[in-house]
Amino acid sequence: MMLTGEVTNIKAAAERSGLSREHLSRSMGMPHVEAFIARESRKTIAHGKMRASARLLELVDASSEHVSLDASKHVLAIEGIRPPDQGQVSVNVGVSVGYVIDLSGNASNPSATVIDARLTRDGE
Hints:
124 residues, mainly alpha
């Protein structure tokens, strides 16, 4: 009933099914029930994709310019088309594996180790 939207919470589902709220709540946490919920949720969303995409395309032609613009931007973004970020700085913080290449030209760092390397093609 919760998957179909007939009820919106566990209390209402328990009342409609004749189960105690505690039993239903505990049952919903069981691995096989969680797998069922995940599978059925994916099916429900898959069925709604066509309706949602059709509605989005309808909104591209909406009488409100604001709604039309937002829908158009969304459709383009889905296809990977969007304007470049303006004035935003993107910083990635984290640890990565590999070498750091210092292109600053500052050779005065005594703790830096220089490794001589050359570019080769595979198999050479």
